[in-house]
Write a structure and sequence with these properties.
Elements (H helix, E strand, L loop, with lengths): L3 H30 L3 H27 L19 H28 L3 H31 L3 H11 L14
Helix pairs in contact: 1-2, 1-3, 2-5, 3-4
This protein binds MU-OXO-diiron.
Length: 172
């Protein structure tokens, strides 16, 4: 059985995962508007992944006899200064997510809930790749600088990203 505090905190994180997805969907729309359709596709898969993360928490709360409480999703940002700004914002967002999981682990350990801690370890490990993949893209965009050709090549490369199976948390 989940403690009230952990149940609340997990419901908050469920909401935050959907919100994360919403941010990436908004980024996808912005990138489409710039005709960077490979990057838009990449962001749409990122959106799908966030919903998988949300559903993992949803199922966990139910499995532990908790109550899922869905809350309003905050409106995401809709404008960015540049393509680099999009990916740097995504990177900062993922760093924020990692921090949130750190806080959740602190709470689980305080509540001596070792089962929830196991779930949270999966998420915090996932964050290594979540941060690394978006940081790599941001760095490549920064290196491309003003070169439209390099940006176009990167866009084509990002169009190749494949959806990953849901049972793997959405990870390729
Ligand atoms: Fe659900 Fe991108 O972390």
């Amino acid at each position: 059985m989940l403690s009230v505090k952990l149940e609340e905190a997990l419901n908050d994180q469920l909401n935050f995962e959907v919100y994360s997805g919403y941010i990436y969907l908004s980024m996808s729309a912005w990138l489409s508007g710039k005709n960077l359709n490979g990057m838009a596709h990449w962001m749409q898969l990122q959106y799908n992944e966030e919903l998988i993360h949300a559903m993992k928490i949803f199922a966990y709360i139910n499995d532990r006899g908790g109550k899922v409480v869905l809350k309003a999703i905050q409106q995401p940002q809709t404008e960015w200064k540049s393509v680099l700004d999009v990916f740097e914002t995504a990177y900062r967002h993922e760093q924020n997510v990692t921090g949130r999981f750190g806080d959740l682990i602190d709470l689980a350990l305080k509540e001596r809930d070792h089962v929830t801690n196991v779930l949270l370890q999966w998420f915090i490990n996932e964050q290594i790749e979540e941060e690394a993949s978006v940081k790599e893209i941001a760095d490549q965009i920064a290196m491309a600088g003003e070169s439209r050709d390099s940006l176009f090549m990167l866009d084509r490369e990002m169009a190749q990203r494949q959806a990953a199976p849901a049972e793997n948390g959405g990870k390729a």
